[in-house]
Specification:
The chain contains no helices and eleven strands. By secondary structure, it is an all-beta fold. Strand 4 and strand 5 form a beta hairpin.
Length: 118
C-alpha cells in the first residue's frame, strides 16, 4: 500500500502562487507515476499534471500549461505542484494520486482546497 498526504492549499488572490506538496509513504518503490487531479464544485475530477516516479517524464494539461509545474524532489518521496498566475477557475480541491505500472490511479490523498479570489 501507498499513503499520500497533500499539503499547501489555501486562499490566494488571482495572479498569485501556491505550491502543493504530496508526501508518499509505504511501498513507494512500487510507484510508477504520480498525478495531481482537481475537482471543482459540480464538475468531474480531472488530471492537471503527472510525473513518472523516475522523474523523467511529465504531463501538464493544456488548461494549466505554462502556469503549473510538477516536480519530484531528488531521490525523495515528495511530488510538488507549483502553481503560478492563478485564476479563479483554478479553484478546486486538488488530489494527489499514484499508480503502479499498468494500473489506473489507485492511491489517493484526502485532497487540499485551493481557492483563488478575484
Amino acid at each position: 500500500q501507498v499513503q499520500l498526504q497533500e499539503s499547501g492549499g489555501g486562499l490566494v488572490q488571482a495572479g498569485g502562487s501556491l505550491r502543493l506538496s504530496c508526501a508518499a509513504s509505504g511501498r513507494t518503490f512500487s510507484i510508477y507515476e504520480v498525478g495531481w487531479f482537481r475537482q471543482a464544485p459540480g464538475r468531474e475530477r480531472v488530471l492537471v499534471a503527472a510525473i513518472s516516479w523516475s522523474g523523467g517524464a511529465t504531463y501538464t494539461d493544456d488548461s494549466v500549461k505554462g502556469r503549473f509545474t510538477i516536480s519530484r524532489d531528488d531521490g525523495g518521496n515528495t511530488v510538488a505542484l507549483q502553481m503560478n498566475s492563478l485564476k479563479a477557475e483554478d479553484t478546486a480541491v486538488y488530489y494527489c494520486t499514484a499508480r503502479r505500472r499498468a494500473n489506473p490511479y489507485e492511491y489517493w490523498g484526502q485532497g487540499t482546497q485551493v481557492t483563488v479570489s478575484t
